[in-house]
Amino acid sequence: MNLADSYVIGVDYGTLSGRAVVVRVSDGTELADAAYPYPHAVLTDALPDGGPQLPPEWALQVPRDYVQVLQHAVPEAVRKAGIDPARVVGLATDFTACTMVPVTADGVPLCEQPRFANRPHAYVKLWRHHAAQAQADRINELATERGEPWLSRYGGLISSEWEFAKGLQVLEEDPEVYAAMEHWVEAADWIVWQLTGSYVRNACTAGYKGIYQDGRYPSADFLAALNPDFAGFVTDKLEHRIGQLGDSAGTLSAQAAAWTGLPEGIAVAVGNVDAHVTAPAAKAVEPGQMVAIMGTSTCHVMSAEGPADVPGMCGAVDGGIVDGLWGFEAGQSGVGDIFGWFVRTCVPPAYVSAAAERGLDVHQYLTEVASRQAIGEHGLLALDWHSGNRSVLVDHELSGVFVGQTLATKPEDMYRALLEATAFGTRVIVEAFRDSGVPVRELTVAGGLLKNRLLMQIYCDVLNMPISVIASEQGPALGSAIHAAVAAGAYPDIRTAAEAMGNVQRNAYLPDPENARAYQQLFEEYRTLHDYFGRGGNNVMHRLKAMRRAAVAGRTTSPIGVSS
C-alpha cells in the first residue's frame, strides 16, 4: 500500500450530528470534513409526527438519522477534499455511548415497524437517557448484596446510562417491545452493521457499558434475581461475537458503497466510542496520559498497566483503549450542555443584542466579559450536576446548584461560575484516580470546548497542571480514521498508527501559581457542597426529582408503552 496516496474516512457520531473527515494515511493530515445534523435531533418531549409525550429524563433518537450521515456527510467530505474516492482504503466510526438500539434479527430497528412507531421503548435510547435510574439502583443494590466481583471494576456503581439498566427498563415498562427485540445493540455496532451487513460487537462498549469482564457477563442467576423474565437477557438479547479495537469488522457492502460513494469492499473497522477512539488522535496511548473529550458532556479516558478499583469510574477494561493496557473511563454528564442551557434560558435580551453588535455569539460575549473578573469576584459557587453526576458519584438523580446569588448577580457571573464548576468536577475525577494509585501525569483536551481559551485556562489553574490540546477540531473522527488505517492494514497496531497520524500540542496551557492558590480555596468549598448534596448529607435533589415525576405522571393519560 502506498501510504502517500491512500486515504481513510473517520465518522464521529455525536449527540446532535455526525461528522466525517478525510485523512491521509501517511501522516494524519486532515484534508476536509463535513457535518450533518440529525433531522430529529434528540427526542426529549415527544415522539415524532405527533407521537406520545415522553416523561422526564427520557432522551431518544431516530436511527435513520445515523444512516443519513453516511449519505450526506461522507460524500460531501470526499468532494471537499478533492480526492479520488478509489484511493480511500478504509472507514471507521465512533459513537456516543451508551446509546442502544432495539432491533430484529436482521438489524431493523423496532421503531421502523408500523406497530411500534408510537412506542417510545422501540426507539434508540441515547446515552443521556436517564429514566432507568430505578433499575440501576436495583442492579447496584443486588450486586453489592451478593458481592458480585465485576462491580469493583466500575467503581462500585453501575450507571442508569448503561446497557443493563436500560434493557431492564424496556422489559418492565413495555414487555411487548422487549419480546420483539432480538438484539439489544450499541449504536456503535449498529452503524457498522449497516456498513458491512455483519453484526460485530465491539470490545470497548462491551466492557465499559455492557459489564463484560474476564470473558463473561453477569450471570443468568443474578439477572433472574432482578426480574425472572430478565434471566435470558444476555443469551437472548445481548451476547454476540466481540471484535477487538482496530480490527476489521468486515468490508463495505454494495448498499453502503452507494450511500457513501466509496469503493465497495474496503475495510470497515470494529466500532468504538467517541471518547476512547480520541486517545490515539491525541497520541495518548501510554499509562498516565488522560484525554478529556469536552463537548456536550465530558469523557475522561486513560490507560494504565493493570486494573485498579477507582471509586465511581465508568469502568476498567483490559484493552479498552489500546491492546496490552487497561483502559479507564470517567466522565461528567453535562458540560457544554450546561453552558448551552444557560445561554438559552438565562440570558436577557440586552446581552443578546450586545453580542450581536460586536459580531459575537452569546457564549463568546459572556466569556469575554467574564474573563475580566478576578477569581472569586462573582461571589458564586455552582455544582455542575444539571444532567446528573456520572463520576464519581454515579447518580443521575442529582441536579444543579448555585450558591451566593444576590440581586447584584449578573449573567456573566453565573456563566463563569458554571465554567469553574465543570473544572472542579474534573479535578474530583483526577484526584479519585490519583488516590487509587492511577496517577494522571498528563492531561490532553479534545472536543469543541477547547476553543474557549478562558475555559482552558480555568481548567489549567484549577487542576494546577499543564494542559495539552489535540491539534485537530475533529479529534474523535481523526481517532476513527487512525483505526480505519489499522483495519486496512496500513499500520500494524494502534500505537504505531497514532505516532504517525496523531496530532497534539503539548503544554499549550500552563498554570498560574496565584490563580491556582485562589482556586484551591474555591475547590475546597466545592468539595463541601459536593459531599453534602452528593453523599447523603441532604437528599433533597432526589426528593425533588421524585416530586417532579409524580406531578408529571398525574397528567399522563396512558402508560408509556402504549400510545393513546
TrEMBL record:
EC number(s) reported in the record: 2.7.1.16
A single GO BP: L-arabinose catabolic process to D-xylulose 5-phosphate
Pfam family of the protein (one): FGGY_C
Alphabetically ordered keywords of this record: Arabinose catabolism, ATP-binding, Carbohydrate metabolism, Kinase, Nucleotide-binding, Transferase
GO-annotated cellular components: cytoplasm
Signal peptide range: none
Pathway: Carbohydrate degradation; L-arabinose degradation via L-ribulose; D-xylulose 5-phosphate from L-arabinose (bacterial route): step 2/3
Reactions mediated catalytically: L-ribulose + ATP = L-ribulose 5-phosphate + ADP + H(+); D-ribulose + ATP = D-ribulose 5-phosphate + ADP + H(+)
InterPro entries: ATPase_NBD (IPR043129), Carb_kinase_FGGY (IPR000577), FGGY_C (IPR018485), FGGY_N (IPR018484), Ribulokinase (IPR005929)
One annotated GO molecular function: ribulokinase activity
Highest rank taxon of the organism: Bacteria
Domain (Carbohydrate kinase FGGY N-terminal): residue spans on this chain: 7-278
Family designation: Belongs to the ribulokinase family.
PANTHER family: FGGY CARBOHYDRATE KINASE DOMAIN-CONTAINING PROTEIN (PTHR43435:SF4), RIBULOKINASE (PTHR43435)
Name this polypeptide is given: Ribulokinase
